[in-house]
Amino acid sequence: MKITNYELYQVPPRWLFLKIETDEGIKGWGEPVIEGRAHTVKAAVEELMEYLMGKDPLRIEDHWNMLYRSGFYRGGPILMSALAGIDQALWDIKGKYYNAPVYQLLGGACRDSIKVYSWIGGDRPSDVGEAAKEAVSTGFHAIKMNGTEEMHYIDSYDKVDAAVERVQAVREAVGNGVGIGIDFHGRVHKPMAKVLAKELEPFRPMFIEEPVLAENNEALREITRHTHIPIATGERMYSRWDFKPLLESGHADIIQPDLSHAGGITEVKKIASMAEAYDVAMAPHCPLGPIALASCLQVDATAHNAFIQEQSLGIHYNKENDLLDYIKDRSVFDYKDGFVQIPQGPGLGIEIDEEYVKERAEEGHNWRNPVWRHQDNSIAEW
After folding, report:
1. Is residue 363 part of a domain?
2. Confidence category of residue 367, pLDDT binned at 50, 70, 90
3. Which of 14, 236, 266, 329 has the greatest number of C-beta atoms within 10 Å?
4. Whether 200 contacts 162, CB under 8 Å
5. How far apart are CA 232 and CA 224, in angstroms?
6. Mind telling me which Gene3D superfamilies this protein's record contains (predicted)?
7. What local confidence, expressed as pLDDT, does residue 23 receive?
8. Residue 123 — pLDDT band, cuts 50, 70, 90?
9. Per-residue pLDDT reduced to its tens digit, 104-116
10. Residues 19, 132 within the same domain
11. Does pLDDT of 126 surpass 80?
12. Alpha-carbon distance 308 to 260, whole Å?
């Protein structure tokens, strides 16, 4: 079997899909994208795919190493996201070739389903108490919310109090049995992250996410001294080499590699195993489309330390299209009692509606994240 062709589809709301074709008629799908930089990742995929034309798609480990190691410059969000989508598509082909879900080719499942959480609120969260109650009423046992708006290095306690009040409203709305993930989104700098972590402790969050940006991971050492809340991070880390110092430091409790950013199925499976050796849990990042989610679930099935999965159904970014729009059998992502079953179909376990993908790619998108500024007009972290 040989790779004969590929196509890329930039589809709303902010996704990029890759289809790889073979001479035996088997097609694989991947989702290589950086939110807000889809066109740039598309160009990187085109460059990398030149190396794979005419090659056997089943040699995934060799292809991964060739695409990663043969470039003098390696790593980073663009190259690793391009590699991630290619890797997903190759695994999809391999599973279809052997008529087995990807997780079976990774050693088999250690679980049948995994807990999922629902996003509530938006970039500037408000009225989250009612949104949380609605999510729980539909069967979710865990939710995630943005914790705060923009914050300066040192900011007012008015903003701290507002964040605390929102979390309190959610806890009061859903009770003590529902997990609450609080995403700092890298918007908060170390001085205020310490304050917020301390103030939020009474509401027993499931975790606080990205209390500081990954480029400032050394600050986690001090933040962990101020709170018992589990610390989650990793969505802006792109390889096992990025995660290595974080795991060695012992200051993260949950890692959140993204299957469309951190080198795909091949790499995240290795990152998960590294984390397990440090007794660190995994909750893959996935505010993306159905191919990314299906890839996450294949790894979740085989990773003992995976405990919950992010998914984008109804997330505030999904305006023109939502998670289920691009797949033929929507039941594969049915959420029941707060869990989703691991897909059992061959490959990634989903069937892409190719005609609809092509139709929506005609419209495409040019999604960009907001540019925020502080009151003094300096740039704020979004």
Report:
1. no
2. very high
3. 14
4. no
5. 11
6. Enolase-like C-terminal domain, Enolase-like, N-terminal domain
7. 98
8. confident
9. 999 999 999 999 9
10. no
11. no
12. 17
User: CA distances (Å), 163 to each of 145, 150, 170, 255, in order?
Assistant: 11, 11, 11, 24
CA quadruple 30, 33, 38, 41: dihedral positive or negative? negative
- Bridge pairing between strands 207-209 and 231-233: parallel
378: left (phi over 0), alpha (psi -120 to 50) or beta: beta
- The rounded radius of gyration (Å) of the Cα atoms in the chain is 20
For 225-242, give the secondary structure using H, E and C: CCCCCCEEECCCCCCHHH
- Checking if the pLDDT of 166 tops 90, the result is yes
How far apart are the C-alpha atoms of 252 and 193, rounded to whole Å?
A: 15
Same domain, 113 and 88: no
Percent of the chain with pLDDT over 70: 100
Q: Same domain, yes or no, for 211 and 275? A: yes
d(CA 134, CA 142): 12
φ/ψ bin of 352: left (φ > 0), alpha (ψ from -120 to 50), beta (otherwise)? beta
Residues 63 and 150 in one domain: no
Determine the 3-state secondary structure of 313 from DSSP. coil
- Summarised one tens digit per residue, pLDDT across range 241-267 is 999 999 999 999 999 999 999 999 999
- Write out the two tokens for 118: 């629902």
Active site residue 185: yes
Contact, 275 vs 282, CB < 8 A?
yes
Show the tokens assigned to 272. 């998960």
Catalytic residue among 185, 189, 251, 365: 185
193 and 256 inside one domain? yes
Assign residue 47 the CATH number of its domain: 3.30.390.10
Task: Record the pTM.
Answer: 0.97
Range of the domain at 237: 104-348
**Is 285 an annotated catalytic residue?**
yes
- Structure confidence by residue, pLDDT tens digits, 47-90: 999 999 999 999 999 999 999 999 999 999 999 999 999 999 99
pLDDT of residue 316: 85
Peptide bond into 370 cis (omega under 30): no
Q: How many folded domains does the chain comprise?
A: 2
pLDDT tens digits, 2-25: 999 999 999 999 999 999 999 999
